[in-house]
Amino acid sequence: MKTLDPHFFDAAERRVHPLSLTDGGSVDFPLRSYEARMTALTVTIASDRAAALLPSPHFVPVRLTPRRALLLFVAVEYTRKCIGPYREVFVAIPVLRGTRWSPPLLPALLEMRWPGFGLYLTHIAVTTERARAVGWEILSFPKFLVDITFADHGRCRTCTVTENGTSILSFSVAKGEAWRARRGIIDVYSLSPGDNLLYHVVYENWSGP
User: Fold this and answer.
1) Residue (of 136, 194, 141, 144) closest to 168 by Cα position
2) Nearest alpha-carbon partner for 130 in 83, 78, 192
3) CA atoms of 204 and 32, how far apart (whole Å)
4) pLDDT score, position 111
5) Which residues face 162 on adjacent strands?
């Protein structure tokens, strides 16, 4: 498992490393997002089905009830990012690492404050080739190219993902109030599409109105 130091993003503005891509280009790392809009939906899934999607027995799905786990659908519009603007939709299972048992409800409520909490990414769809290349070659994320559109209907916002002209995912959420500004670090895991190894990336996040 590839693991980044949890303090890797400390003083990131002063510690930028250009990394090369196979197309001859390069990208500054750490990746930085300056402006984005997020649409997210949380649903439940049978705990045993969620566990079957995880790549390692070192993870257990976060449970809302004894038999129901959580599944996230998240759409992000990156309007200002170091690799250019693009749209992304990912599907993730909230997990606990390093334990064989997840108490119902508490990890879901405490999220990043609960020891071992993280997200396992099952699918990541993006709208630009550069975002896909960075995902595969730098982060080892299984990204693939799609079209992503958003439509607003009153207080409802709909995200639709289309691949080769066929709709593969669509979900709608009610618009909420702006988030309270907060800072946090979250662990993200994925199975690399290139070498089939489990990778661990640490994200530092600052979000708010």
Assistant:
1) 144
2) 83
3) 10
4) 63
5) 147, 167
Neighbours of 90 (CB within 10 A): 22
User: Both tokens of residue 91?
Assistant: 């599907």
Classify residue 66 as exposed, middle or buried by CB count within 10 Å of its CB (0-12, 13-18, 19+). Answer: exposed
CA nearest neighbour of 45 among 107, 91, 97, 83: 91
Show the DSSP H helices in the chain as ranges. 47-53, 106-110, 129-134
175, 158 contact by CB (below 8 A): no
Among 10-19, 26-35, 118-127, the range scoring the smallest mean pLDDT is 10-19
Query: CB under 8 Å to 27, separation ≥6 — which residues?
Result: 18, 19, 21, 82, 83, 134, 138
* Gyration radius of the chain's alpha carbons: 17
| Lookup: tokens for 105 | 């409800």
Chain centroid to Cα 36, Å, comes to 14
Whether the pTM exceeds 0.90: the reply is no
Any idea which of 4-8, 31-35, 36-40, 199-203 has the lowest mean pLDDT? 4-8
